[in-house]
């Protein structure tokens, strides 16, 4: 299994089916690689080798039954049988700790499994661990994790992005072929860009949020990372679809994804002028513009579009998301689960438990949200933000009458050094300036690598599409990745 | 705009957060600068714009009300900081 890092999801599935190696051998090789590289990368909060080996052995029994035509194997094989994955540590997996990167949930062991995770388990995945995240997914670097930051495999002194930085780093470093993430304001797309992997934030409501620990409930979406759009499509297909346990889950069929087309004939790409702003790193703009030209060369028609309220997305987001967070995080009070600070009176227990259990950024957002929702300020802040959100949503509706997808950078810069923004919350928030609008409008966004800067750090491009048209984004990135090899570049982590 | 220390203390009380002296002064400064940034939203006339209640126009569905087992009580209580007689135990609420 020495070649493991060079195998993608489909190579691994083909190898398992042919019997070139067993799921147990693949898992042992994966665990060995994680143990070797984890001290440098810190991609995991909880490592689950025993669970992984149990699941791998179950997968091998299923493969054996299938080979012998045993009817108990059923029709065919589960789609991801024996594939090692990481689950972001904000998604519940029964009987495995779910910390959300927070001291307040350090000892929380969920008694149930998130729907998106259950669908992956039903498809046969092997879970090697729960990946690192900024506390409650609030952050753009994993530096807000109570358990320490993850590292970017392209430069260990730099952040992998966040909040799903553990998953992105692990896929980039070839620890696992695929991993899950969640995205409230860019938490899948920004780390995908920083780490040079492909990451999909689906349409709001496309993947069930049941069992995703809530941050901003009108914005949260569950998605996936892999090296290529084709692999991400496979995970997305499995995780997506209606779930009666999430009342905002869309009751729509998930379209068949046929990613065969190698050209982009007929695709209308819109390039929003508001996303090429002053302050953007010139190499990022350059790489994205070259990628758009390549897509044009593949047959796409490119035109300029306008999303005029783009510059308001940041203030809108940083009122709405903290407001929702302040309500969602009220449940961490030391009564039913999680940490409790001893106190004489219950009210005192609330104050102490929350004061000691939450980190600085979480407290900051709870404070901001509480203020934005408080009497006398609600209309001026939260109410106004929800109205401007309507304008941002309408910008997208208008743009998608003219074009099929919008192409733009994922982030203004490539990965920044650890510690660079930790004292300046507003500077950290600016990292999300190109990813927040998709969450506010609920549209899907896909990030994938389109080049490197002069420091050798990956540059990502984002495609956004109309509601429930993840298929267009994945197809376009697939065609681009057939013609280019940025997504195959591997960091020198050994 | 600038948040006074008294305002920050008031918000922290509403949010049930015990903050240190250092956090109180840091947060008054940081929250003020974030709110200043957010003030630019007032540039926009939204008098005729409805607020976004949901990004999807699918409405909120109701499921059939069919009784089904809920989570196992023992499993749920396993996460509780303190349990007595199959119930969550908390410090006294009243004097």
Short structural description:
Helix content of chain A is 38%, strand content 12%.
Description:
The complex is a heterodimer of chains A (494) and B (95). By secondary structure, chain A is α/β, with parallel strands linked by helices. Chain A has helices at residues 9-18, 23-41, 49-67, 115-122, 165-172, 189-195, 229-239, 282-297, 313-328, 346-357, 360-373, 379-402, 425-429, 436-441, 470-483; strands spanning 44-47, 84-88, 126-131, 178-183, 198-201, 221-226, 268-272, 301-305, 405-409, 445-452, 458-464. In chain A, strand 7 (268-272), helix 8 (282-297) and strand 8 (301-305) form a beta-alpha-beta unit. In chain A, helix 2 (23-41) runs antiparallel to helix 3 (49-67), helix 7 (229-239) packs antiparallel against helix 15 and helix 9 packs across helix 12 (379-402). Chain A is globular. The mean pLDDT of chain A is 95. Chain B has a domain at 5-43: Histone, subunit A (Orthogonal Bundle), CATH 1.10.20. In chain B, strand 1 and strand 2 form a beta hairpin. In chain B, helix 1 (5-14) packs across helix 2. In chain B, 35% of the residues lie in helices and 4% in strands. Chain B is mainly alpha-helical and 95 residues long. Chains A and B meet through helix 9, helix 10, helix 11, helix 12 and helix 13 of A and helix 1 and helix 2 of B.
- CATH level-1 class of chain A: Alpha Beta
* Spatial order of strands in the largest sheet of chain A: 1-3-2-4-6-5-10-11-9-7-8
Radius of gyration of chain B: 23 Å
**CATH homologous superfamily of the domain at 5-43 in chain B?**
Glu-tRNAGln amidotransferase C subunit, N-terminal domain
Helix content of chain A: 25-40%
Any descriptors?
heterodimer; A: 494 residues; alpha/beta; Amidase signature (AS) enzymes; 15 helices; 11 strands; 12% strand; globular; B: 95 residues; mainly alpha; Histone, subunit A; two-stranded antiparallel sheet; 4% strand
């Amino acid at each position: 299994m020495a070649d493991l890092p060079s195998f993608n999801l489909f190579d691994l599935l083909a190898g398992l089916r042919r019997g070139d190696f067993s799921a147990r051998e693949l898992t042992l090789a994966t665990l060995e690689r994680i143990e070797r590289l984890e001290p440098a990368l810190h991609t995991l909060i909880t490592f689950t080798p025993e669970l992984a080996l149990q699941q791998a052995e179950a997968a091998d029994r299923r493969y054996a039954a299938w080979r012998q035509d045993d009817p108990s194997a059923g029709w065919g094989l589960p789609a991801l049988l024996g594939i090692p994955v990481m689950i972001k540590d904000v998604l519940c997996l029964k009987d495995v700790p779910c910390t959300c990167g927070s001291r307040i949930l350090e000892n929380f062991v969920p008694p149930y499994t998130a729907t998106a995770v259950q669908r992956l388990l039903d498809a046969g995945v092997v879970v090697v661990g729960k990946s690192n995240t900024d506390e409650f997914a609030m952050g753009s670097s994993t530096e807000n994790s109570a358990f320490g930051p993850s590292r970017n495999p392209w430069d260990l002194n730099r952040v992998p992005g966040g909040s799903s930085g553990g998953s992105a780093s692990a896929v980039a470093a070839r620890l696992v072929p695929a991993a899950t993430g969640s995205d409230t304001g860019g938490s899948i797309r920004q780390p995908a860009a920083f780490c040079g992997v492909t990451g999909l934030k689906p349409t709001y409501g496309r993947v069930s949020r049941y069992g995703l620990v809530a941050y901003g409930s009108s914005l949260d979406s569950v998605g996936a990372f892999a090296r290529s759009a084709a692999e991400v499509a496979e995970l997305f297909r499995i995780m997506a679809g209606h779930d009666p346990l999430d009342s905002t889950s869309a009751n729509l069929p998930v379209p068949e994804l046929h990613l065969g087309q190698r050209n982009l004939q007929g695709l209308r790409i819109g390039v929003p002028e508001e996303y090429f702003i002053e302050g953007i790193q010139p190499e990022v703009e350059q790489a994205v513009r070259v990628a758009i030209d390549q897509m044009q060369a593949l047959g796409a028609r490119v035109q300029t579009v306008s999303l005029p309220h783009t510059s308001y997305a940041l203030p809108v987001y940083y009122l709405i998301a903290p407001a929702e967070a302040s309500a969602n995080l009220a449940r961490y009070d030391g009564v039913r689960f999680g940490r409790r600070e001893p106190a004489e009176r219950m009210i005192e227990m609330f104050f102490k438990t929350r004061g000691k259990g939450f980190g600085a950024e979480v407290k900051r957002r709870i404070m901001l949200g509480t203020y934005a929702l408080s009497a006398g300020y609600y209309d001026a802040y939260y109410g106004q933000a929800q109205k401007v959100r309507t304008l941002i949503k309408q910008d997208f509706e208008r743009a998608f009458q003219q074009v099929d997808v919008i192409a733009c950078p994922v982030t203004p810069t490539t990965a920044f050094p650890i510690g660079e923004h930790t004292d300046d919350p507003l500077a950290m928030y600016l990292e999300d300036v190109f990813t927040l609008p998709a969450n506010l409008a609920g549209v899907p966004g896909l990030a994938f690598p389109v080049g490197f800067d002069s420091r050798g750090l990956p540059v990502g491009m984002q495609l956004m599409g109309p509601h429930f048209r993840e298929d267009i984004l994945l197809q376009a990135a697939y065609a681009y990745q057939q013609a280019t090899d940025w997504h195959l570049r591997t960091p020198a982590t050994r | 705009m600038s948040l006074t220390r008294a305002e920050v203390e008031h918000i922290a009380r509403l949010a049930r957060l015990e903050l240190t002296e250092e956090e109180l002064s840091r947060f008054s400064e940081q929250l003020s600068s974030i709110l200043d940034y957010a003030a630019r939203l007032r540039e926009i006339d939204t008098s005729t714009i409805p607020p976004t209640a949901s990004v999807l126009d699918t409405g909120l569905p109701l499921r059939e009300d069919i009784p089904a087992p809920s989570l196992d009580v023992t499993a749920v209580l396993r996460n509780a900081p303190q349990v007595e007689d199959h119930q969550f135990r908390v410090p006294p609420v009243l004097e």
